Amino acid sequence: FGPREIRAESAMVRRYNASTGAAPFDSLQVADIGDVNVNLYNLPDSCRLIRESYQKIAASGCVPLTLGGDHTITYPILQAVAEKHGPVGLVHVDAHTDTGDTALGEKIYHGTPFRRCVEEGLLDCSRVVQIGIRGSSYDPDPYKYCRDRGFRVVPAEECWRKSLVPLMGEVRKQMGDKPVYISFDIDGLDPAYAPGTGTPEIAGLTPAQALEIIRGCKGLNVVGCDLVEVAPTYDVSGNTALLGANLLFEMLCVLPRVKTPFSVNGRAEAVSHGQAAARRAR
Question: What's the chain's average pLDDT?
Fold first, then answer.
Protein backbone atom coordinates (compact mmCIF):
# COMPACT_ATOMS: atom_id res chain seq x y z
CA PHE A 1 0.00 0.00 0.00
CA GLY A 2 3.00 2.34 -0.32
CA PRO A 3 1.89 3.90 -3.63
CA ARG A 4 -1.61 4.55 -2.31
CA GLU A 5 -0.27 6.36 0.78
CA ILE A 6 2.24 8.39 -1.26
CA ARG A 7 -0.59 9.47 -3.55
CA ALA A 8 -2.66 10.54 -0.53
CA GLU A 9 0.18 12.59 0.96
CA SER A 10 0.97 14.15 -2.43
CA ALA A 11 -2.12 16.34 -1.96
CA MET A 12 0.25 18.74 -0.17
CA VAL A 13 2.64 18.96 -3.14
CA ARG A 14 2.10 22.11 -5.20
CA ARG A 15 3.03 23.15 -8.75
CA TYR A 16 6.32 25.04 -8.36
CA ASN A 17 9.60 24.40 -6.60
CA ALA A 18 10.17 27.63 -4.72
CA SER A 19 13.73 26.60 -3.79
CA THR A 20 15.04 25.76 -7.27
CA GLY A 21 12.69 27.69 -9.57
CA ALA A 22 11.60 24.52 -11.36
CA ALA A 23 8.18 24.46 -13.00
CA PRO A 24 7.68 20.79 -13.94
CA PHE A 25 3.95 20.98 -14.68
CA ASP A 26 4.49 23.96 -16.98
CA SER A 27 7.29 22.12 -18.80
CA LEU A 28 6.04 18.56 -19.26
CA GLN A 29 2.90 16.52 -19.65
CA VAL A 30 2.65 14.83 -16.25
CA ALA A 31 0.14 12.10 -15.42
CA ASP A 32 -0.52 9.37 -12.91
CA ILE A 33 -1.03 6.42 -15.27
CA GLY A 34 -2.18 4.05 -12.54
CA ASP A 35 -0.92 0.81 -11.07
CA VAL A 36 0.95 -2.08 -12.64
CA ASN A 37 -0.70 -5.39 -11.86
CA VAL A 38 1.58 -7.85 -10.05
CA ASN A 39 1.32 -11.48 -8.99
CA LEU A 40 1.58 -11.52 -5.19
CA TYR A 41 2.27 -15.25 -5.19
CA ASN A 42 5.04 -15.29 -7.79
CA LEU A 43 7.88 -12.74 -7.82
CA PRO A 44 9.37 -13.83 -11.17
CA ASP A 45 5.96 -13.46 -12.78
CA SER A 46 5.54 -10.05 -11.13
CA CYS A 47 8.86 -9.03 -12.66
CA ARG A 48 7.60 -10.15 -16.06
CA LEU A 49 4.43 -8.09 -15.68
CA ILE A 50 6.40 -5.02 -14.58
CA ARG A 51 8.95 -5.40 -17.39
CA GLU A 52 6.26 -5.69 -20.06
CA SER A 53 4.43 -2.64 -18.71
CA TYR A 54 7.58 -0.55 -18.67
CA GLN A 55 8.59 -1.63 -22.15
CA LYS A 56 5.40 0.08 -23.35
CA ILE A 57 6.03 3.11 -21.14
CA ALA A 58 9.63 3.50 -22.35
CA ALA A 59 8.64 2.97 -25.99
CA SER A 60 6.14 5.84 -25.71
CA GLY A 61 8.95 8.26 -24.80
CA CYS A 62 7.71 8.67 -21.24
CA VAL A 63 10.23 9.15 -18.42
CA PRO A 64 8.80 6.99 -15.61
CA LEU A 65 8.79 8.07 -11.97
CA THR A 66 7.71 5.00 -10.05
CA LEU A 67 6.07 4.71 -6.64
CA GLY A 68 7.06 1.44 -4.97
CA GLY A 69 6.68 -1.18 -3.85
CA ASP A 70 9.80 -2.92 -2.57
CA HIS A 71 13.16 -2.68 -4.30
CA THR A 72 12.55 -5.78 -6.39
CA ILE A 73 10.66 -3.58 -8.85
CA THR A 74 13.79 -1.71 -9.97
CA TYR A 75 15.16 -4.85 -11.65
CA PRO A 76 12.37 -5.30 -14.25
CA ILE A 77 12.07 -1.52 -14.69
CA LEU A 78 15.76 -1.34 -15.58
CA GLN A 79 15.34 -4.27 -17.96
CA ALA A 80 12.89 -2.13 -19.91
CA VAL A 81 14.81 1.14 -19.55
CA ALA A 82 18.11 -0.42 -20.64
CA GLU A 83 16.37 -2.01 -23.64
CA LYS A 84 15.67 1.53 -24.85
CA HIS A 85 18.75 3.42 -23.63
CA GLY A 86 21.45 0.79 -23.22
CA PRO A 87 23.33 0.30 -19.93
CA VAL A 88 22.54 3.21 -17.60
CA GLY A 89 24.35 4.99 -14.82
CA LEU A 90 22.74 4.71 -11.40
CA VAL A 91 22.36 7.12 -8.49
CA HIS A 92 21.22 4.76 -5.74
CA VAL A 93 20.27 6.05 -2.28
CA ASP A 94 19.78 3.26 0.25
CA ALA A 95 20.84 1.82 3.58
CA HIS A 96 21.74 -1.40 1.72
CA THR A 97 23.61 -2.18 -1.50
CA ASP A 98 20.91 -4.65 -2.64
CA THR A 99 23.54 -6.77 -4.35
CA GLY A 100 22.87 -10.03 -2.49
CA ASP A 101 22.72 -13.25 -4.47
CA THR A 102 19.96 -15.36 -2.91
CA ALA A 103 17.53 -15.47 0.01
CA LEU A 104 15.99 -18.78 1.03
CA GLY A 105 17.23 -20.14 -2.28
CA GLU A 106 15.51 -17.46 -4.37
CA LYS A 107 17.46 -15.12 -6.67
CA ILE A 108 14.74 -12.48 -7.00
CA TYR A 109 13.85 -10.42 -3.94
CA HIS A 110 14.33 -6.88 -2.67
CA GLY A 111 17.94 -7.49 -1.61
CA THR A 112 19.20 -8.70 -5.03
CA PRO A 113 18.01 -6.32 -7.79
CA PHE A 114 21.33 -4.70 -8.60
CA ARG A 115 23.26 -7.99 -8.75
CA ARG A 116 20.70 -9.23 -11.26
CA CYS A 117 21.10 -5.96 -13.18
CA VAL A 118 24.88 -6.35 -13.28
CA GLU A 119 24.58 -9.94 -14.49
CA GLU A 120 22.34 -8.85 -17.37
CA GLY A 121 24.48 -5.86 -18.37
CA LEU A 122 21.78 -3.30 -17.51
CA LEU A 123 24.15 -1.00 -15.60
CA ASP A 124 27.20 0.95 -16.71
CA CYS A 125 29.15 -0.11 -13.62
CA SER A 126 31.69 2.71 -13.96
CA ARG A 127 28.79 5.13 -13.42
CA VAL A 128 27.10 3.64 -10.35
CA VAL A 129 27.14 5.45 -7.01
CA GLN A 130 25.46 4.14 -3.85
CA ILE A 131 24.90 6.69 -1.07
CA GLY A 132 23.90 6.22 2.57
CA ILE A 133 24.91 2.56 2.92
CA ARG A 134 25.11 1.35 6.51
CA GLY A 135 24.02 -1.27 9.04
CA SER A 136 25.16 -4.66 10.21
CA SER A 137 26.02 -7.36 7.72
CA TYR A 138 26.16 -11.10 7.16
CA ASP A 139 29.53 -10.63 5.47
CA PRO A 140 32.81 -9.26 6.89
CA ASP A 141 33.35 -7.18 3.72
CA PRO A 142 29.83 -6.29 2.58
CA TYR A 143 30.90 -3.76 -0.08
CA LYS A 144 33.41 -5.99 -1.86
CA TYR A 145 31.03 -7.13 -4.62
CA CYS A 146 30.14 -3.50 -5.44
CA ARG A 147 33.66 -2.14 -5.40
CA ASP A 148 35.02 -5.08 -7.40
CA ARG A 149 32.60 -4.08 -10.15
CA GLY A 150 33.55 -0.43 -10.10
CA PHE A 151 30.66 1.00 -8.06
CA ARG A 152 31.35 4.02 -5.89
CA VAL A 153 30.04 3.21 -2.39
CA VAL A 154 29.49 6.15 -0.03
CA PRO A 155 28.76 4.81 3.47
CA ALA A 156 26.44 6.85 5.66
CA GLU A 157 29.21 7.79 8.07
CA GLU A 158 30.95 9.66 5.24
CA CYS A 159 27.81 11.81 5.03
CA TRP A 160 27.35 12.61 8.72
CA ARG A 161 27.24 16.28 9.71
CA LYS A 162 28.05 17.63 6.26
CA SER A 163 26.51 18.98 3.08
CA LEU A 164 26.41 16.55 0.16
CA VAL A 165 26.66 19.31 -2.46
CA PRO A 166 30.41 18.63 -3.02
CA LEU A 167 29.75 14.90 -3.37
CA MET A 168 27.09 15.53 -5.99
CA GLY A 169 29.49 17.72 -7.96
CA GLU A 170 31.75 14.67 -8.21
CA VAL A 171 28.80 12.44 -9.11
CA ARG A 172 27.77 14.73 -11.99
CA LYS A 173 31.27 14.48 -13.45
CA GLN A 174 31.18 10.70 -13.05
CA MET A 175 27.80 10.38 -14.77
CA GLY A 176 28.60 12.67 -17.71
CA ASP A 177 25.90 13.11 -20.36
CA LYS A 178 24.92 9.44 -20.72
CA PRO A 179 21.59 8.04 -19.43
CA VAL A 180 21.16 7.93 -15.64
CA TYR A 181 18.52 6.27 -13.47
CA ILE A 182 17.75 7.41 -9.90
CA SER A 183 16.64 4.76 -7.41
CA PHE A 184 15.79 6.04 -3.93
CA ASP A 185 15.02 3.61 -1.12
CA ILE A 186 13.28 5.51 1.68
CA ASP A 187 15.35 3.58 4.24
CA GLY A 188 18.33 5.60 3.06
CA LEU A 189 16.90 8.22 5.41
CA ASP A 190 17.26 7.87 9.16
CA PRO A 191 14.23 6.14 10.72
CA ALA A 192 13.71 9.19 12.92
CA TYR A 193 12.43 10.84 9.71
CA ALA A 194 11.14 7.80 7.81
CA PRO A 195 10.12 4.97 10.14
CA GLY A 196 7.61 3.53 7.68
CA THR A 197 9.85 1.00 5.98
CA GLY A 198 10.56 -2.70 6.34
CA THR A 199 14.32 -2.68 6.99
CA PRO A 200 15.20 0.50 8.94
CA GLU A 201 18.82 1.21 9.87
CA ILE A 202 19.96 3.81 12.40
CA ALA A 203 22.18 6.83 11.68
CA GLY A 204 20.98 7.51 8.16
CA LEU A 205 20.64 10.54 5.92
CA THR A 206 18.54 13.60 6.73
CA PRO A 207 15.75 14.93 4.50
CA ALA A 208 17.93 17.97 3.72
CA GLN A 209 20.71 15.67 2.47
CA ALA A 210 18.14 13.77 0.38
CA LEU A 211 17.21 17.06 -1.29
CA GLU A 212 20.89 17.84 -1.92
CA ILE A 213 21.32 14.47 -3.62
CA ILE A 214 18.28 14.78 -5.88
CA ARG A 215 18.80 18.46 -6.70
CA GLY A 216 22.43 17.60 -7.39
CA CYS A 217 21.20 15.43 -10.29
CA LYS A 218 19.99 18.51 -12.17
CA GLY A 219 21.67 18.62 -15.57
CA LEU A 220 22.06 14.85 -15.83
CA ASN A 221 20.37 12.82 -18.56
CA VAL A 222 17.83 11.26 -16.20
CA VAL A 223 15.78 8.58 -17.97
CA GLY A 224 13.80 7.27 -15.00
CA CYS A 225 13.43 7.34 -11.23
CA ASP A 226 11.82 5.38 -8.44
CA LEU A 227 11.01 5.83 -4.76
CA VAL A 228 10.65 2.47 -3.04
CA GLU A 229 10.14 0.64 0.27
CA VAL A 230 7.49 2.90 1.82
CA ALA A 231 5.52 0.65 4.19
CA PRO A 232 2.66 2.69 5.67
CA THR A 233 1.83 0.03 8.28
CA TYR A 234 4.93 1.03 10.22
CA ASP A 235 4.16 4.76 10.32
CA VAL A 236 0.70 5.84 11.40
CA SER A 237 1.74 9.51 11.15
CA GLY A 238 2.06 9.40 7.35
CA ASN A 239 5.38 11.27 7.52
CA THR A 240 7.29 8.60 5.58
CA ALA A 241 4.86 8.75 2.67
CA LEU A 242 4.87 12.58 2.83
CA LEU A 243 8.66 12.50 2.50
CA GLY A 244 8.32 10.06 -0.40
CA ALA A 245 5.85 12.30 -2.21
CA ASN A 246 8.12 15.33 -1.86
CA LEU A 247 11.21 13.42 -2.99
CA LEU A 248 9.35 12.25 -6.09
CA PHE A 249 8.37 15.88 -6.78
CA GLU A 250 12.05 16.82 -6.49
CA MET A 251 12.92 14.07 -8.98
CA LEU A 252 10.30 15.44 -11.35
CA CYS A 253 11.93 18.86 -11.01
CA VAL A 254 15.37 17.63 -12.19
CA LEU A 255 14.21 15.88 -15.37
CA PRO A 256 16.05 17.15 -18.44
CA ARG A 257 13.24 19.14 -20.08
CA VAL A 258 12.02 20.89 -16.94
CA LYS A 259 12.28 24.67 -17.24
CA THR A 260 13.33 26.99 -14.45
CA PRO A 261 11.55 30.16 -15.56
CA PHE A 262 12.75 32.22 -12.62
CA SER A 263 15.99 32.46 -10.70
CA VAL A 264 15.35 32.12 -7.00
CA ASN A 265 17.90 34.83 -6.18
CA GLY A 266 16.70 36.97 -9.06
CA ARG A 267 13.13 36.66 -7.93
CA ALA A 268 14.04 37.71 -4.39
CA GLU A 269 15.95 40.67 -5.80
CA ALA A 270 12.97 41.68 -7.95
CA VAL A 271 10.68 41.52 -4.93
CA SER A 272 13.01 43.71 -2.87
CA HIS A 273 13.28 46.23 -5.71
CA GLY A 274 9.50 46.24 -6.04
CA GLN A 275 9.09 46.83 -2.33
CA ALA A 276 11.58 49.71 -2.46
CA ALA A 277 9.66 51.26 -5.37
CA ALA A 278 6.40 50.91 -3.44
CA ARG A 279 7.93 52.68 -0.46
CA ARG A 280 9.15 55.52 -2.68
CA ALA A 281 5.67 55.83 -4.20
CA ARG A 282 4.12 56.10 -0.76
Answer: 93
At 181 the pLDDT is 99
Q: Is the pLDDT score of 278 beyond 80?
A: no
Check if the beta carbon of residue 198 is closer than 8 Å to that of residue 231. Answer: yes
Name the residue with higher pLDDT: 192 or 266.
Answer: 192
Answer whether 129's CB lies under 8 Å from 167's CB.
no
Q: How many CB atoms lie within 10 A of CB 185?
A: 26
How far apart CA 244 and CA 241 sit, in angstroms, is: 5
Domains of the chain: 2-268 (3.40.800.10)
